[in-house]
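User: For my dataset I need records formatted as: sequence, then C-alpha cells, nothing else. Please produce one.
Assistant:
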Amino acid sequence: METTRNGDVMIVRLARPEKKNALTSEMYAGLADALDAAETDQSVRVVMLLGSGGAFTAGNDLSDFLSNPPRGGEAPVFRFLRALARASVPLVAAVDGDAVGVGTTMLLHCDMVVASTRSRFRLPFVELGLVPEAGSTLLLPRLVGHAKAAELMMLGHFFDADEAWRLGLVNHVTEPDDLEPTLARLAASLAAKPPQALRATKRLLRGDPAAIEAAILAEAQVFAERLLSPEAREAFTAFLEKRPPDFSKGA
C-alpha cells in the first residue's frame, strides 16, 4: 500500500498488482492508519482510494486470511471498516478491473466513485460460506432496494460498470486511461469547497454513523461464526485446491 499527497488530497493506492491487490492484514492496518491520519489532519480535504495494475482489489487474500483470521474488534480489518464508517473527510475511489468482496462493499462508504469500462464487481460471500461485511447489509438495500441487494449478495454474480452505474454505485464510467484523471478532477473540485461545510454535508447525507457501526458489528459476529462452519471450511479448501466446492452434505 502506498500513501502520498497531492496538495489537499491524500492518495491511498493498493499496490500489490501481482495478486490483484488482494488484501492482507498488514494492508488493512495500513488502510486504517491512513484514514485515521486523514481524520486528524485538517489539511486533508479529500481521500482518493486507488488500485493498481488493472485491478482495484480481488478482496481478501484467502491464504493470509486463513493464517490470520480476524479476532476481536481491534483486528486490522475491523479497524478499517470502523474508519470507513466514521470518516468525515470525503472519500472518492477509482475502480479499474475487479472489485471483489470488500472491494465492492467499501465503495458503499465512498462519496463518489468512478469506474472504468473494464471494471467488474462481485459480492461472493455466500459462495464462501460467509456473510457480507462493512455494513453492506444495511447500506446496499438502502441504495438499490431489498430485491436487487438480495440478488447481488445471495447469487454473488459479477456485474459490470454499466450496471454499477445504473444501480447508483458509481458516478461515472470512463475508459481506463481516463479513469484516474477523471477522479483527480473530482477530488480537486471537492478539495476547493469550504471544508467544514463539505464534511457537515457528508455527515447529513450518510445518516446515523452509529447505525452503520451497529450493522458492521452484527455482521462481524455472524461472519466470525461462519468462519468456523463446515460450509466455509469446504469453500476455502475447494478454492485453494482449485476445485468446485461440494455443499451437498449440508451443515
